[in-house]
Amino acid sequence: MRAVAVHPDAVVVTSRMWQTTCTAIRAANSADGRMEAMLIDSPYFPDELDALPALLAQAGFEVNALLATHADYDHLLGRAAFPQLALGVGESTAIRLRTEPGVAQKELRDADAEHYVERPAPLSLGSYQSLPVPGYVGLGAEELELHPAEGHTADGTAVFARWAGVLCVGDYLSDVEIPIVRDLEEYRATLARLGPLVEAAETIVPGHGSPHDRDTTLRLLDEDIEYLDGFAKLPAGRDTPRQREVHSANLELISRR
Ligand SMILES: [Zn+2]
Fold first, then answer.
1. What is the pTM of this model?
2. Tell me, what DSSP letter sits at residue 75?
């Protein structure tokens, strides 16, 4: 697990598993100047989740709110680190969690079994809080923007801390993954929506991989659009055996259309 400050008020922590990212963002409360911090998504391994509160507190981030970009199990583990907090999710994610009860829990169990990971407790979502998207969620005296980001899954929310220039997109615009497509039209619409947000951001954090600056992310965005146009070849730098499997699944999906 590694932590990188991408802004004086934002730290990205990257898991050893799938380079899964989580982002802590803080802002001062206007009433008493006290800092509030939001954690977006989560690392995977139990030891990482155990260490996360102290690591963030040491960096000056006392987390008091949790958000998940989408309902895939690897992004839902925030409460394993902060069990006293409720998990906030966009309304599309709340709907998915409600209509697929137990699926995230089972997928986490299966992934743990495959990788021989022992976890002290099963995934507990508690009573998650559904947030309107598009919309805003307050953090201190600031507001995080919530933008719809569907297509990778049936749900998805991109979170933009515009005052800090930090945009967390969930499982899009990754330097280590090609697009994992569930719905091609929605995926394209999400990339079109993310374009202007990337233009307005300084740092873009993908769900998996490294945080990038605007220009690098715009290049990844162009590569992803080109990839989706013909599914002809994998973007350079992401042509790995694992991404070829993803590519095959994408080809199968579009052949069924
Ligand atoms: Zn993911």
1. 0.96
2. G
Which of 81, 95, 75, 92 shows the shortest CA–CA distance to 135? 92
The pLDDT value recorded for residue 257 is 78
* Per-residue confidence (pLDDT) for residue 31, from 0 to 100: 87
| Three-class SS state of 148 | strand
* Residues in the 5 Å CB sphere of ion ligand 1: 72, 74, 171, 207
Size of the chain, expressed as the number of residues it contains? 257
- CA 9 to ligand 1 center in whole angstroms: 24
Answer whether 227's CB lies under 8 Å from 251's CB: no
Q: pLDDT tens digit string along 173-189?
A: 999 999 999 999 999 99
Please, which residues have CB within 8 angstroms of residue 65's CB and are 6 or more apart in sequence?
Answer: 36, 37, 38, 39, 85, 88, 137, 139
Q: Which helix (H) or strand (E) holds 228?
A: helix 214-230
Torsion of CA 46, 63, 195, 204, to 10 degrees: -60
**Burial of 78 per CB tally in 10 Å (0-12, 13-18, 19+):** buried
Tell me how far the alpha carbon of residue 198 lies from the centroid of ligand 1, in angstroms. 20
88 strand-pairing partners: 67, 129
CA 7 vs CA 26, 76, 111, 208: distances in Å = 10, 24, 33, 19
Phi, psi for 11 (deg, rounded to 5): -125, 135
Amino acid (1-letter code) at residue 194: L
C-alpha of residue 165 to centroid of ligand 1, in Å: 22
